[in-house]
Amino acid sequence: MSEVLTLPQKSSAIASPLTPALAIQGVHRRYGSFVALEDVNLDIWPGEFVSIIGHSGCGKSTLLNLIAGLDHPTEGHVQILGRTITGPGPDRSMVFQNYSLLPWLSVRHNVTEALKAARPDMNGTEREQTTDHALKTVGLWPHQHKRPTALSGGQRQRVAIARAFAVHPRVLLLDEPFGALDAITKGKLQDELLGMWSAEGESGISNVVMVTHDIDEAIYLSDRIVVMSNGPRAHIHEVLTVDLPRPRDRAALVKSDTYLDLKAHMLHLLGTVLATHA
Amino acid sequence: MLLSALRSDLPKLSEIGAALGTLLKDPWYNRGPNDQGILNLLLSSLKRVFSGFALGALIAIPMGVVMGSVPGVRRALDPVVQLLRPVSPLAWFPIGLVLFKSAEPATVFIIFITALWPTVINTAFGVSGVPQDFKNVARVFQFTPTQYVLRVLLPYALPHIVTGLRISFGIAWMVIVAAEMLSGKSGIGFFVWDAWNALNLPNVVSAILIIGVTGFTFDQLFNVLEKKVSYV
């Protein structure tokens, strides 16, 4: 309960410049004799947008679940602002690959139920206002009384983003959030996500950790890209820094040398160095 | 032999029509416990079915929820359920008589036992199928146990539960006729047996039609309910 009452707050108020927002230290995850992750070490600094990329079975979703507190490391630990993560908390929230909206609840109730659970500190009025704001931000306020099944894939993922963002987490976790969407919808949602993240004062979101298999998406969105080696015994193969100024312009980006070099390097990594025969 | 029996012994359509007409002309009369109008008899059967069915659901749904969510309980109770399920509910009549010392509650007891199994099995099946995705949502947003049961587990399992109730009710409606033949007090099953003893076959056939229409009507009502709770 004390966690619930003390969080979330602004990053600057808590974190000293030397405390990573997330610290993954010596993390191993074994399932019986199967080694999913082997000795993963990563510090994520306040304000960073980090993508995790790799082939299927590279343990990237496992790593995300460890940060979410849905799973626990067999060895090592994951810390948020210096505190070891023992389970899910209101300081982290997640957008799932297949939206995972509760189909028997309206769009609005999907958000309010999550808020009721994750933010018991909010009273009814605050909850309704936060819900209104979150749904308006993703443009789905007019559809608030519909069931998720009446929405398109893009709209459903917007609701899932609104739900995750309404909680005002410090860290937003995304598990291949745009994988099932068409290119145009995907682009729009990526920009909306960037908007929410950069408006940190309003959303409270300081960090985004996103699992993806899309190289362009990773470069466009991230400050750093974590390339995982192939599983089993997956570990971090390389961490790439995306040295491109923000806000980024999609059209200009694809012509820049930094972008092209990064993309070529990642294609080489994923296509040759870490090639699978799948 | 069967053919000749069909021709000579079974009532003609006109006789059945006449019997049905007489029965439905004054369906609510009441001249003491052994002489009642057909709809009065039907109503007393329905009352027994609904009492037994409601009691059964009251036990079966929570039992199914626990079996579906706690694998240990499921492993422990599943053999018991599988063993008792194929037993004709009528076999429980003597147990009911011993327990309640009277035919009336013993009849309701039979229906109670009948109504248990399909609802238990379907509820447990529904509850155990809650997808990991929904469980993860509940965990990430830290749903309280109550919130999880009311907002995730029950809504997910509700269509299965209603299907279980529908099957339970259907079997209970079949069993009540036999149970009332056995308990011999009142009700539509008693009417069938009484008509047979009086060799009044047009009344037997009329009762079969009335039982069928009643069962069909309730099945359709459950069908509507099933559609209502479906979220797909």
Arithmetic mean of pLDDT of chain B = 93
Q: What is the topology, as strand order, of the major beta sheet of chain A?
A: 6-7-8-3-9-10
From the structure provided, what is the oligomeric state, counting identical versus distinct chains? heterodimer
Under the CATH scheme, the architecture of chain A is 3-Layer(aba) Sandwich
Roughly what percent helix of chain B?
over 70%
Strand content of chain B: under 5%
Q: Report how far apart the termini of chain A are.
A: 46 Å
CATH class descriptor of chain A: Alpha Beta
Number of helices of chain B: 10
Number of domains as seen in the coordinates of chain A: 1
Most extensive chain interface and residues per partner? A-B, 26 and 19 residues
What is the arithmetic mean of pLDDT of chain A? 89
CATH fold descriptor of chain B:
MetI-like fold
User: Major sheet of chain A: size, sense and barrel closure?
Assistant: 6 strands, mixed
Instruction: Give the terminus-to-terminus CA distance of chain B.
Output: 54 Å
Annotation field: number of helices of chain A: 11
CATH superfamily descriptor of chain B: MetI-like
Residue windows where pLDDT falls under 50 for at least 5 positions of chain B: none
Coarse shape of chain B: elongated
Keywords:
heterodimer, A: 278 residues, alpha/beta, Rossmann fold, six-stranded mixed sheet, four-stranded antiparallel sheet, 10 strands, 38% helix, 22% strand, globular, disordered N terminus, B: 232 residues, mainly alpha, MetI-like fold, 10 helices, 81% helix, 0% strand
